[in-house]
Structures are given as C-alpha cells and as structure tokens.
Specification:
By secondary structure, the protein is mainly beta. It is built from 3 helices and 35 strands. The longest helix has 22 residues. The N terminus is likely disordered.
Length: about 550
C-alpha cells in the first residue's frame, strides 16, 4: 500500500469516526433553534396542501454536515433531544406518513458528503397519524392541519453532535397570527430610504411598490403587514391607497389630506406578489413615510381577542395616568396587562390613541416599555388638534407600553379595543383585497344619507363582501367626510351598550380616516355613532378575524 493510499484510508476512517460520534451524541436541551452551525432553508412553507413538496437545502457552515433526518412534528413542544425526535419515546413526531397524498417526511435519513450542499425534497401531509404506541406505555397521535399547528423538523448531524431546526407549516386558506416588532422605518421619501434609493416626493398619480417580506426582519411567510403610513406636506388635496401588489387597485383609500398636512394612519394590508404592497398617491406631490409595527404569519405569532372598547387612559381625568398634560419630551407608561380585562399573557394590544389640544406641532410615539424608543411616530398634530390613530403595539416589561410626546404639552386618551395572546382558542387574521363596504353618499352598505346628530347606523358585516359567518371581528378603514359640526365617531359591536370611546374626531369640512379594528355583534353587525351635526361615512374592509 502506498503512502498516499494509507493517508487517504486514514482520512476516511477519521471522517467515519467523527460521523459515528456525531450521530451517537444526544443534543443538549434547547437545541431546536434558528441558529445552527450550518445554513438551512426550506420552501415553500405556506399555502401548502396535502402532499405539497418542501425543498430543503443544507450547506456546511461553521460545521460540516454529515446527515439529515426529517419528521413532521407537533408545534406544541420543542424538539430538544434525539429522544424527542423518536415518536415512540416522545409522541411529538409522527412515525408514518400523514394525509393521503404520499407524504414522505416521516423518517428520511440522508448521509451527505460533509463539505457539500445537500438538497432534499420532502412531501408533507395534512391529517392525522392515527394512534401509535409509546415505549413507556399508552398511545399518541400527531395531527397537522389548520387548527393543529405542526412543523417540519430536521435533525442535523453536525460536528460534535446533533441539532434541530424546525420550519412551521402553513396550509392553504389558513389564517394568520400577529407578530409585533419594535417599529422600524421602511420608507421615507425625504431620504434615500425608498424603493429606488433616491429621495423625492411621489408625483400626482404615482405608485410605489414597497418590499415587505425578506426585509426589515419580516419573514417570507408573512401574509399581511401592519404599518403606520404618513403623508408629509402634500401640495394638493388627495388620498393614498395601499393594497397588495399584483391585484387590481381597489376603490378604497387609507389616508386623506389637504395641502400642508402631516397625516398618519395605521394600515393593515395583505402582502401581494413579490412580497410587496403598492401605494398610490393622488393629489399634487407628497412625501410618504411608512413605519412597520408588525406582521401576520400563518406559521407563527399570536391570536386576537376583540373587546368592547374601554378607556384605559385619559390624562384629562386621571384615568391610567396622572391628572396632568404630558410635557414636552415626557412619557406616559400605561399598564396594559392585568388591567381592563387584558390578561397577564397578552403580548400585544390594540389601542385607539387620541392627541387632544396640543399647544405645539409635534408627534407621539407608542412603543413597548423596556426597549429603546424607536425612530417612528403614531400621531402627528398641530396646535389645537384632536387627532386619533389606531395603534397596534407589543407589550413590554411590567406589562406596559409607553407614549412619548415630542413637543409642547398635550392630553392623551387611549381606548383598548383588543389584545393578542398565545391562546390558540382566540382568532386568526384573514386579509382581503380592500373593498368598500359602506358609503353613505351613494347607498353602499344600505345607508344613503349622512348620519345625523346622536344617531347611529348598523353595518351588516357577516355574509357581505366575502366576510364569513364565523368572523368575530373586522379591520376597516373608516372615513368621516365633510361633517357640518365638530364631533366624534364611535364603532362597537352591535347589541352591546355603546362604550365611552371614540375612533374618529373631526371638525367642520374635514375628511378624516382612521383604521378601526372592532368586534362583530351577535347579529353579524357593527354600529357607528356620530355625536354631533351630520357626517357622511365611508368604510373599506381590509380583513377579518375568525
């Protein structure tokens, strides 16, 4: 035997020994993680049906890769040990194919060349494994469908042991769950933070296609985005429409403005082709800002519970904070959990926040307690304004959120309209292409006259405009059009007592939008109340919870 052959044989034996050691090593607790010493991708993981193929690619990174095993496992528990991966030990993973379309992601073992890239395709199944016996006695089943979350879990044999990485599976037609993020600015046409990298106002009739998924921490599985969009110093009166890219621009609006305005509004919108949303601008030229506050995904996140609106903060009355205006540079730290029926495990809250009678132009930023205040704004105002905006924000340390006032002094009001928790008995979100459900100017929605003083209208939601009978809450952009008196609007579930809360505030001649996230009454309707004068109302649906 030559010296070269001897070294080659020795190398093979060493590699084999390392491989055998790696597959015999039990991984430490907490090994199921997104941070593994190899590069792993899996696609697609959403829009799946029974028998869909998922392509997995694994490339050596800081470690070589010796082998890969795959199973469909319940999302109810982490896979931290090789014993967890064994169905007969833990009952967490399926021992056989799920569904009826030939799924094979149940015990695939692939040995790979340590330094290469391995590309594997697994068929995933939708259904139940049936009952199987456990070594400790008893039986278990693994179920994977719209109501039983599951994942494709990979056992990765790497240098020194095994690690696990999982990819949650989202089925076609599956609802989505909310993931709050610390607000991040993804668009500012006053700067180079634009799709083209060039600063400049959006022209009249101009459209921007804004990248959402795969950027700013938003994953490719996101199906809808929540962002605060602000029109800055437009040169003409007009509006902004936001919709999923790739579908026909709808007859709807998200912001309305007049020359010189600085107008924000929260937008919840489905994500369209290429992971993008489109923004159309009509009315002179305009700078646009967009701050993402969260996204919805069918494979992870938290579930929504709507509540009858309740006033959690009013600095004019000492509710939720001191009886005092908020000073320039001042903050209010508002208790959210374990108050106003919001449970301790809530992770996010939906607030309608109103700035009342500021004495200087400025803005308010709402953010989770305990994190650095972000470069973002939720409300913008000028002296004397009464300006509302819907705010969806993660709950921070001690169960609180902070409200920061940039300039002058101001009173702040906040009404809780819902919250998010990990409780999977609560509701998931289904985005829709925006559709006009109400316009009292032309009879859309069954009302063909302005809403009078002290009057309310009931809007049929379930069974109309694609909203199913099982929907529990809706998201709609609601606009007050040319009121003849200063007033406010309240939206609430039909059939319960109208709450002390407001969704829009307006003065004579205004065109004022605000996003409304509200529960649906037992009769399938929501009610809208106008306090003074008369006003036309427009409502564009953007999604529902069920």
């Amino acid at each position: 035997m030559t010296k070269t052959r001897t070294f080659r044989t020795l190398g093979i034996l060493i590699a084999l020994a390392v491989y055998l050691l790696s597959i015999a090593t039990i991984s430490p607790a907490g090994a199921e993680t997104a941070s593994v010493p190899v590069t792993v991708t899996a696609a697609p993981t959403t829009g799946l049906v029974d028998g869909s193929s998922v392509t997995v690619t694994v490339t050596a990174g800081s470690s070589v890769i010796y082998g890969i095993e795959a199973r469909q496992c319940s999302s109810a528990g982490a896979i931290n040990y090789t014993a967890d991966f064994s169905p007969t030990v833990s009952g967490k993973c399926t021992p056989t194919a799920l569904g009826s379309a030939g799924a094979d992601a149940f015990k695939t073992v692939t040995s790979v060349s340590p330094y290469s890239t391995a590309t594997l395709t697994f068929k995933v199944g939708k259904g139940t494994s049936g009952s199987f016996s456990l070594q400790s006695g008893g039986t278990a089943t693994v179920q994977c469908d719209e109501t039983h979350a599951c994942k494709l879990t990979l056992l990765l044999q790497v240098a020194g042991g095994t690690v696990f990485q999982s990819f949650p599976l989202g089925w076609d037609g599956m609802g989505a769950r909310f993931n709050p993020v610390t607000p991040v600015r993804i668009l500012d046409t006053r700067t180079t933070n634009t799709p083209t990298g060039v600063a400049g106002q959006v022209p009249d009739g101009g459209t921007l296609n804004l990248q959402i998924t795969g950027a700013n921490g938003i994953p490719v599985d996101a199906t809808a985005v929540v962002m605060n969009v602000t029109a800055v110093l437009p040169t003409g009166a007009g509006f902004i429409t936001v919709w999923p890219r790739g579908v026909t621009q709808p007859l709807s609006s998200n912001l309305n403005f007049v020359p010189g305005d600085v107008v924000p509004n929260l937008v919840t919108v489905g994500i369209g082709s290429n992971g993008q949303v489109s923004l159309y601008h009509q009315g002179g030229t305009n700078d646009l800002i967009a701050d993402v506050v969260g996204y919805y995904s069918p494979v992870n996140g938290d579930y929504f519970t709507a509540v009858t609106p309740v006033r959690a903060l009013d600095t004019r009355a000492g509710t939720g904070a001191a009886l005092a205006r908020v000073a320039q540079g001042g903050e209010v730290s508002l208790q959210i959990t374990n108050a106003n029926a919001v449970p301790a495990n809530a992770t996010g809250v939906v607030l309608n926040v109103t700035a009342v009678s500021p004495d200087a132009a400025g803005y308010v930023t709402v953010y989770p307690n305990g994190v650095t205040r972000p470069l973002a704004s939720n409300l913008n105002f000028v002296p004397g304004d009464v300006v509302p905006n819907l705010v969806i924000v993660g709950i921070g340390t001690s169960g609180k959120v902070n409200l920061f006032n940039a300039n002058g002094t101001i009173d702040l009001v906040a009404d809780i309209v819902g919250y998010y928790t990990p409780d999977n008995t609560a509701k998931q979100f289904y985005p829709v292409t925006p559709v006009r459900a109400l316009d009292t100017r032309n009879g859309t929605g069954g009302v063909s006259a302005p809403v009078g003083q002290g009057a309310s209208i009931d809007l049929t939601v379930r069974g109309a405009n694609g909203i199913p009978a099982g929907a529990s809450a809706i998201v709609m952009n609601t606009t007050a059009v040319t009121p003849n008196a200063a007033s406010y609007l309240t939206a609430w579930p039909t059939g319960v007592t109208r709450p002390l809360a407001s969704n829009l505030n307006y003065v004579v001649g205004d065109i004022v939008p605000n996003l409304v996230q509200v529960g649906i009454g037992s009769n399938g309707k929501v009610s809208l109340f106008n306090n003074a004068g008369s006003v036309d109302l427009v409502a564009d649906l953007t999604g529902y919870f069920a």
